[in-house]
C-alpha cells in the first residue's frame, strides 16, 4: 500500500500542475437503493440475457455472489460517469488479462468488449501493449482466449 500512496501523491501533483481542481467530484450515479438494479441493467446491456440465467441458475449458496457482482462491480463502479461503457469494458479486459488465472472472466469480457464495439484487433493491440508488463504466459493465455471467443476468419 505504500506504493499506492506514492502514486496518488504524484498523480495529484500532476493533476494540479495541469489545472485540475482537487478533490475530483464524485462520479457515482447510484444509491444504495438503486445500485443492484442499475448494475444488473448495465450487465444485461453488455452481456445480454445470459446474466439473468446466471442469477437464476446459480446454486442457492452462491446467489449472493451474483448479487454482489451486479450491485458492487457493475452498480457501484461500472455505472459511474467519467468513462463510457466501451472504455470501461476495455479497462476491465486489461485488468483481467494482467491478473492471470482469470481465463473464464477474460473470455466473458472479450465477448462483452465485442458487444460494446471493441473489435478483436483492438483487444489484440491491448494485449500487445501489456506484454512487457505481464509476460509471455499471460499474453499467450489472453490470445488463446481471444481466438476461442473470436476465431480468425
UniProtKB/TrEMBL annotation:
Keyword Oxidoreductase: yes
Pfam families named in the record: CMD
Sorted UniProt keywords: Oxidoreductase, Peroxidase
Superkingdom of the organism of origin: Bacteria
Domain Carboxymuconolactone decarboxylase-like per the UniProt entry, residue ranges: 65-148
Cross-referenced InterPro entries: 4CMD/NDH-1_regulator, AhpD-like, CMD-like
Entry protein name: 4-carboxymuconolactone decarboxylase
Source species of the chain: Bacteroides xylanisolvens
